[in-house]
Amino acid sequence: MTLLEAIEARHSVRAYRDEPIAPDALVRLREEIRACNEAGALHLQLITQEPTAFGGLMAHYGKFDNVRNYIALVGKKDAGLDERLGWYGERLVLLAQTLGLNTCWVGLTFSRRAGKRACVIAADETLCGVIAVGYGNTQGSAHRSRPLRECCHVDGEMPEWFARGMEAAMLAPTAVNQQRFRFTLLADGAVKAESTGGAYSRMDLGIVRYHFALAAGEQDFRWA
Q1: This model's pTM is above 0.90
Q2: Domain ranges in the chain?
Q3: Confidence label for 159 from pLDDT (cuts 50, 70 and 90)
Q4: DSSP states along 31-99
């Protein structure tokens, strides 16, 4: 499975089988986490066989079941942290899909205290959320989507590469499926991506930008 195929196949999954992640998949995930941490100046961490972060009332409210593995979204506090976490976190999500794993972005409905105990967080760092990962009971289901044209602006005919990028962006996971983002093709050919507000919208912007870049071909355009 390619990353573009993973965009199509991947859906959020909240209930997991009691099955450890295969050793070869763990190796690939840890390798990619190291690469993402280096490229994004982050401190992402894979936590395995740790049930307490999803063992309380918040997880029950979020309808999570048997989550024992997750990626802790940790980084130094700065203005661009949320967007970088979205970009590199989704890079890990799509890789996980190609490895036969399922995932779910989680911002609130887990025990932040347990998550902090399970990972390493420096004084100038913060835990912004987690990504549940494992073998799902199901493959999840597609979310409802806003009309594509509500989330972008192009003067004149939409170029094929921009349309590909937008189609992938519309498949990206966002907090409560809010899809609060907008892509604009500027007159000079650059692409402007912006949040239109809402909870976790800066992290969402990083996620949708990663999808757009993969499908549009980042070598074929530039960000504004």
Answers
A1: yes
A2: 3-134, 148-218
A3: very high
A4: HHHHHHHHHHTB--EEE-S--GGGSSHHHHHTT-BS---EEEEEEE-STTHHHHHHHHHHHHHHHHHHT
